[in-house]
Amino acid sequence: MNFLDRIDQPALILDEDTARRNIDRMAVNALRNRVNFRPHFKTHQSAEIGQWFREKGVEQITVSSVEMAEYFADNGWQDITIAFSVNVRQLERIRQLAQRIKLQVLVESAEGIQSIASLTDCSLGVWLKIDAGNNRTGLDWQQVDLVKEFSDQVKRFPNLHLLGLLTHSGNTYRAQTRAEVCSIFREGVDRLEHLRLALEDHGVKGILISVGDTPGCTLCDDWSSIYEVRPGNFVFYDAQQFIAGVCEFQDIAVAVACPVVAKHPLRREVVVYGGAIHLSKDYVEINGQRSYGLVALRDGDRWGAPVPEAIVKGLSQEHGVIRMPGSEFERVKIGDLLFILPAHSCLTVQVMRKYYTLTSRVISTLNRS
Amino acid sequence: MNFLDRIDQPALILDEDTARRNIDRMAVNALRNRVNFRPHFKTHQSAEIGQWFREKGVEQITVSSVEMAEYFADNGWQDITIAFSVNVRQLERIRQLAQRIKLQVLVESAEGIQSIASLTDCSLGVWLKIDAGNNRTGLDWQQVDLVKEFSDQVKRFPNLHLLGLLTHSGNTYRAQTRAEVCSIFREGVDRLEHLRLALEDHGVKGILISVGDTPGCTLCDDWSSIYEVRPGNFVFYDAQQFIAGVCEFQDIAVAVACPVVAKHPLRREVVVYGGAIHLSKDYVEINGQRSYGLVALRDGDRWGAPVPEAIVKGLSQEHGVIRMPGSEFERVKIGDLLFILPAHSCLTVQVMRKYYTLTSRVISTLNRS
Q1: Residues A364, A353, A170, CA angle at the centre, nearest 5°?
Q2: ipTM
Q3: Residue A299 pLDDT greater than 60, yes or no
Q4: Topology, domain A40-231
């Protein structure tokens, strides 16, 4: 009896070989481009999967919260960037972390700088968080004077070590074509380079540039001016990345296995046990229709290729409603498993909290050890 | 120092008094209408909050999964309906539950009926799951012959006890006005009543009608033909219910407290630590704009009224971007807490996994004990 035959409720399945191949490919890419590889661990959030990166020589990582930094520090990581602007309410936890590992933080406000400057008993690497066009947060790349002022402020404190300019070009996730991804990626880097030169003129030397987004780091060849990359999603990829042309479906390393509980022949819809609490509510568009992932049938001991035109049209708390083409609809039986390749793997991992490998080994995360 | 001053990362805050008042009001409503009150526990998912229902005389509950039924059975509940069509992969767990508590399940297929019929060593209450217009799952209310056939099938097995017809009119959640809610609610009940009469003609007597949705049970006065109601969301309500006119904002019992980490004066946007992993990605529409909740400022030891025109315009994994009107924007400082009243409280509870009361007591759920 195969492991998949024993699954009785929605389960996040991880294809370890595919994830390891994704890690290897990105590590090689960074090495070839001679940039520092500091992968973002917010996607997998797992000490065990972290080890797969370590086996490829990774020693420096990125996380998105103090909590995540504490978890990975507890699991032996000694050099961590928290890629989230300093939350002044967490100063004490930042202090404790900085006293046991090499810690880098982000600032984008006078309040943020003042707060970490007060941690005089620990040493912190500091990045200025720049908004290079994503319009989420960070100092606007056009506010050159403010960037100079904040650089000067950081340099005034002996416990703070100004490292450089950091951005997340999350707007590449909204690109429709590979050319558009690379154009946004380069635009972000060029804007940081523009700021770096302005700082150099201002007398601030040695400023580094850190960028990080999976689409750009996967697709783009021109890595000039970049000191460091921090992609995260590439470890698993997902339906968004596949549809944007960033990866092949064979690169998608995770799927949620969902038992079929009902079939509705008149509307060619299959209802699965697997809803918003298993997948999250991020979605992609397939032929102009919203779909909460790609749908694959079982193929032996794994999932097969996504079924063209299958749509996860609705998710409620525990139910998923899937519209299937006629031939696949006929093949699916009540009690079968369908596999949903998530729209956005980072959020699916967060809600599912643990993985099963194809050989049924459980891999835990920060959220369920 | 108030408890709220110590919050350093996104926290789900529960106003116990408001939740208890919501429970009391719905219990009284059911009592006055002389229907069986079997509240859905999928919203709060907490043994402790379950006790607040028990104090109001509730002995029978609804859950949305076998896992949740096991949790509440472990916490002393002896009469549980799993309001999710039987998943044939979980037969063994259903058997074990039925051997220790009074268990009701839903069926909507021949496969489902056959599978539970095989559990000859336990007794199960059986509801036929009917789709009365929501178009998610269930036997279409117009398929009268199929409903008769399935009734006959269930009655053939001595371990199965046919209870009646059950629907979830989830389409009331999409209604825009109170009148529309009540019209959909009554339409669902009337369609079940139509089926009930058809079954009676067919010789199947004693069929009960079970419905359950918070909007309908909150707003509608005509409860005729109804044996049982199973609302769940009402315990906390949320932004969706407020905007649809189902509740007042004073009835919303949960909010996510989020530290402010950045301010962007040019676009009047505040960035908080609080993203998709804290709120989920359900949203409401406010003046035609998507918002992932309502935004309130702190008012003493609690949150205040929602700020009109404040929009949670974007959520990434950990960040929330909030657009504020000018006067409130000025009041908010980096390091303050903002309170986001969730778009959909059921999903927010699921991602946050535990509550803090206003007096800082931690209340655990199924997902984090």
Answers
A1: 110
A2: 0.95
A3: yes
A4: TIM Barrel (3.20.20)
